[in-house]
Amino acid sequence: MEPAAVAPAPEVVARYFREVCAAFERAAERAGRLSHQFALAGGVVAIDFAGTAAQRLFLPALARTPVAGGSAPSLQVCVWDSAASGVALPAPPWPRDTLASRGEIDGFSETGLVRVAFQPGSGVLMLHDAAAGRAVAWVDDATRCPYWEYAAPLRGLWHWWCGERGMQLVHGAAVGGDEAAVLLTGKGGSGKSTTALAALAAGMSYLGDDYVVVEPGSLPKLHSLYRSAKVDERALLRVPQLRSLVDVPQDSGREKAVLFVPGRSSAPRSLCAVVVPRVVESVTRLAPLSPAAAFLALAPTTVFQLPGAGRGSTAILRDLVSAVPCYELALGPEPDHAVRLLRELANAA
Asked: Using CA atoms, how far apart are residues 262 and 253, in angstroms rounded to an integer?
């Protein structure tokens, strides 16, 4: 991405959005247009890919469900990569040193009606025109993207889109029963992913491992966004039933393997509890946790990963932990005990 001269941000970002959309059209002419429309996280999305490489990267992880013909999408997304299409990205109007840690571009990310984010770790650029209900995403070479983008693609874009509809993307796992679900949250290594996958293997409903969507209210709901999970060898040893689902194996270049849960585009569930796991050497047990402590486990890992997340996201998360009971789950060496406790919480709701 070669920088160009900086111009007044609102005008230049709107113009750049149009340039990138035009480049996508050229890419689609060369590589072929692949179109999809589906329900996702409580809304309807239409995505056009320029060629199969971008589709293989960005589509499989989404927890999508079919929609009836004629359903009007609230978001139209165009996705392409330069390697497959031979169409270069138009020169961005910002210098490289403006990139922030969450992918934000200082002076450009929140200007006018077009949002912009660039994820330096995966090289994915996202632009979103909220008023038009349109977005475009680009990556230089989809086949060389890191495994975490394959497992949770375009999360900045989904964060923006969910925010428009009064919903919030959260960093956490969710499992439950037929009607209600539990949100597991906490920093990396706390055991939430392994616990969620053990619950999946035990037959509980699975709404997601790394990111799910919260619909706030007096009775909050949880929506699936991804059907993927990232697991290491230790987790697969504890829950060996999941090994057959691995799609991208762990190797020397990947910290974790990626698996896809088949047939689990789960319907939304009522949120019945926020649970903060913690690995211990003693027995597994569940204890009440204050809303403040639950908020401190939930908010930083969510807000620090999403471009533009700020006071609005923080307010939703604060209300969330006040709306439902919160617990600490001390995780001993027996995953079956933890699953039993989570099942009891979900079934009691």
From this structure: 26
Cα–Cα distance for residue pair 105/128, rounded to 1 Å: 14
pLDDT per position as a tens digit, 184-203 = 998 877 788 888 988 988 98
- Please give the torsion angle defined by the CA atoms of residues 149, 279, 307 and 169, in that order, rounded to the nearest 10 degrees: 90
The partner residues of 110 in beta bridges, in order of sequence, read: 115
Tell me the C-alpha distance between 291 and 278, whole Å: 16
Domains, in order of start, for the chain: 9-164 (no CATH), 168-348 (3.40.50)
Cα–Cα distance between 73 and 39 in angstroms, integer? 9
CA 84 vs CA 59, 91, 141, 153: distances in Å: 16, 19, 7, 18
What does pTM read for this prediction?
A: 0.90
Q: Are 127 and 113 in contact (CB under 8 A)?
A: no
How many angstroms separate the Cα of 12 from the Cα of each of 91, 136, 231, 244, 319?
A: 12, 16, 42, 48, 37
Question: Coil, strand, or helix at residue 279?
Answer: strand
Rounded CA gap, 63 and 337, in Å?
Answer: 28
Contact 255, 178 (CB under 8 A): no
Question: Strand order of the sheet with strand 134-139?
Answer: 33-40, 43-50, 75-81, 134-139, 124-129, 114-119, 110-111
Which tens digits make up the pLDDT trace of 66-80?
887 778 999 999 999
Handedness of CA 308, 227, 40, 64 (dihedral sign): positive
CA diameter of the chain: 61
Helices then strands, each counted (H, E), the chain? 10, 19
